[in-house]
Amino acid sequence: MKPYRIGAVVVRHAYEARHNLDRVTDTLYWPVMDIIVWGFFTLYLARDNRLQPGLVSFLLGGVILWGMFRSFQRDMAAGFLAELWSRNLVNLFSTPLTVSEYMTGLIAVNLIKALLGTLAAGLVAWLCYSYDIFPAFPALLPFMLNLVLFGLAVGIVITGLIFRYTMRIQGLTWSFTALLMPLSCVFYPVRSLPKTLRLLALILPTSHAFEGMRQAMAGGGFSAGHFVWGAALNAIYMVLALFFFRLMFASAQSRGLLVKLE
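The structure corresponding to this sequence follows.
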């Protein structure tokens, strides 16, 4: 891979962001809106004395981390869709740019966007609700890494599906995380799920990330078990996602779909 080609992909998206406010507002709008809504909910609970110790931290921390995961996964596929909407895909791959270089550049762009959204949500939580997540960031970083890696794997799979089945399934870009959210246990522990669903939850890196988050915020220290389980599952899912993407890309090539993905 050539670093200057990866940098060119980053610059291409930076230029688009300068001239397309939708790209900027999506990065900041949804994380900030989520934290505002859930912040008002925690104020309502506090006013009626329904808050248990640590509940605000669990709720607002969950909102911030889930927003980061959701935006990273969404923008991985949406960045590719932007090339289709602008009919730029053929132009890109008529150059020496390789698929791996393009994907690496896209990952770099979306990681920056996800971090900006996370910082914006954390700042709003601090200014409006006196909830400061920043001191907990060192303990949360390993779990945030697992969330990003799983978001990357999901984004790669959805991008592969779009390559193969064209824009008819582009709705998965925005809807797939909603399917994962109930089993990811963002706002409640895994043990609160019915027994039949607990196994499904425990094979998701997201559920281990949020279990580890809650343990860290409750003063229980770093959960090496949840981090290792999440990392191991991510390694498996990443290998499967890359294999699936190559399969879908090869299938799209052989069927001549790269020039008619619309």
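The two ends are 28 Å apart (CA to CA).
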